[in-house]
Amino acid sequence: MLKYMLQRLLLTIPVLLGTSVISFGLMSLTPGDPAEIMLRSGGIQPSPEAVAAVRIQMGLDEPVYVQYIRWLWRMLHLNLGLAYSSGKPVADELLGRFPATLALAAAAVLVLLLIALPLGVASAMLPGGWIDRLGRAAAMVSTAMPGYWLGLLLLYYGAVKLNWFPVTGMDGLGSVVLPALTLGFGMAGTYIRLIRSGMLDALRQSYIRSARARGLRESVVIGSHALRNALLPVWTLFGIHFAHLLGGAVVVETIFAWPGIGKFAVDAILMKDYIAIQGYVLFMVLIVVAVNLLVDIGYKLLDPRIRLGKAS
C-alpha cells in the first residue's frame, strides 16, 4: 500500500508539469494585456508609458519561455503570485476560500446520500413497486433539470417568496441549505440508477442466496453483502464528482454568491486575472490527484480482494 501511494505521488510530478505548461501557454495566447488589466483594476488610466513600466516590472517584456521558467520557479516555492483584482497572494485567496467550498461539498454529499441511497436500495428491493416508480421519476427529474435552473427556483421560492433561508452569501447554517440541495439533488439521479442496477445485480448472485441460507438477518445480507459490492461502481463516479465539488461548483457558487474557490475562479476569468487562473488550475490538479488516490484506497476497503499496484 505504502509503495503504491509513493508511486502515485511521484506520478503527480509530470502531471503537474504538463498542466503548468498547458495553462501557462493558453494564458499567454489569450487576448488582453495583463499590465493594462492590472492598472485598470487599480483605478489607474493605462497610458503607454505606465503599461510599459508595469510590463517591465512584471517581466512581461521577456520571452515566453523565460517567463514560464520564472513562474515555475515561484510555483516550486509555493508562490502562486498576486491576484490582480485584490492584490493578495493567490495561495492565500485559495486557502482562505477552500473551507467554504469544503463545507458546501460536505453538505451536498449529505443531501446526495439522503436521497440516492434509500431510493436506490428500496427500488432494487421492491422492483416495479411505487417506491421504484418514485425513484425512477426522481432520477429522471434530477438528470433532466439543469443545475442553474434548479438553483434559481430554490432561490426564488425558498429565499425570496417564503423567506426561509438567506438569499445569498455565507451566513450561518441556513445559508448552506439551498446550494447544497441544488448540488445534491442534481447528482442524485445518476446515483439512484447506479445503486439500483448494482443492487439488482448483486441480489442475483449466489453468495446472497448462501448468506440467506445460513440464516443471516436480511439487514446484514443487504448492508454487508449486497450493498457493499454494489457500491464499487458508485465509488468511482463519486470520486469524480467529489473532486468537482472540491474544485468549486462554479455555477452554484456564482448563483448563491457562495465565497468559495469556484466563485473566485469565475471572478478571475471575468477580470482576466491570469495569475489567479493559473494558480486555480494547479490547485484543481492537486485536488483531483489527491481524490483519485483516496478513491483507489477506498476500493481496497470496499473489496479486500482488490490488489493495488502491479499485482492488480
TrEMBL record:
Keywords: Cell membrane, Membrane, Transmembrane, Transmembrane helix, Transport
Residue stretches spanning the membrane: 9-29, 102-126, 138-160, 172-194, 234-257, 277-302
Annotated membrane topology: Multi-pass membrane protein
Positions of the ABC transmembrane type-1 domain: 98-295
Location of the protein in the cell: Cell membrane
SUPFAM superfamilies tied to this protein: MetI-like
Protein family: Belongs to the binding-protein-dependent transport system permease family.
Protein name: Nickel ABC transporter permease
